[in-house]
């Protein structure tokens, strides 16, 4: 499970990657980056998902953590919450996470304008992700601006995915520290 202990740990929480378009494309874009380990919580045996010793090693070695998921009812699929409750709750009390960046990478069915004050959903994605930010701050992590690919349920989905893939790869490469020439934040 340790995947040779990489710099960037991506906790992917997608219950149906076979049918995913956007999250699959995002993962495909970063799979070839040597210092990135992707853990799809929904494809792991439960014993591994909740193995405190393994996660302590993995997160302690990492320099950045990314939670990646489709935005389900203004949050992540439930297994990420369970992982937070059982693993992150413990890690937040240790030096394992302190000072490390935490970024949420998510995809939405609705377009960007739906996530505005007065928009169809009534709140920005930043506002809706506040509990993740609070958890990061509580654990001493450095909260990063969420990475969002909007509009998977719109006619612009393919264009949005293509643009998102390029930007996501640049952000992840910046976390690895391989790209010193371009500030993608």
From TrEMBL:
Keywords: Oxidoreductase. The lineage of its organism: Bacteria, Pseudomonadati, Bacteroidota, Bacteroidia, Bacteroidales. It comes from the Bacteria. This is Flavodoxin-like fold domain-containing protein. GO terms for molecular function: electron transfer activity; FMN binding; NAD(P)H dehydrogenase (quinone) activity. Residues 6-171 form the Flavodoxin-like fold domain. It comes from Bacteroides oleiciplenus YIT 12058.
């Amino acid at each position: 499970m340790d995947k040779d202990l990489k710099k960037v740990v991506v906790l992917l929480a997608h219950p149906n990657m076979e049918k995913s378009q956007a999250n699959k494309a995002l993962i495909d874009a970063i799979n070839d980056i040597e210092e990135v380990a992707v853990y799809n919580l929904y494809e792991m045996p439960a014993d591994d998902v909740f193995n405190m010793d393994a996660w302590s090693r993995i997160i302690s070695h990492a320099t950045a953590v990314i939670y990646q998921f489709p935005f389900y009812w203004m949050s992540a699929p439930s297994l990420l919450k369970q992982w937070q409750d059982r693993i992150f709750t413990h890690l937040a009390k240790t030096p394992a996470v302190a000072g490390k960046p935490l970024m949420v990478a998510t995809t939405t069915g609705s377009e960007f304008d739906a996530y505005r004050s007065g928009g169809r959903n009534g709140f920005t994605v930043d506002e809706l992700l506040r509990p993740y930010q609070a958890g990061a701050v509580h654990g001493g992590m450095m909260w990063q601006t969420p990475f969002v690919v909007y509009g998977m349920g719109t006619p612009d989905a393919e264009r949005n995915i293509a643009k998102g893939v390029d930007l996501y790869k640049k952000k992840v490469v910046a976390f690895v520290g391989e790209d010193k020439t371009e500030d993608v934040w």
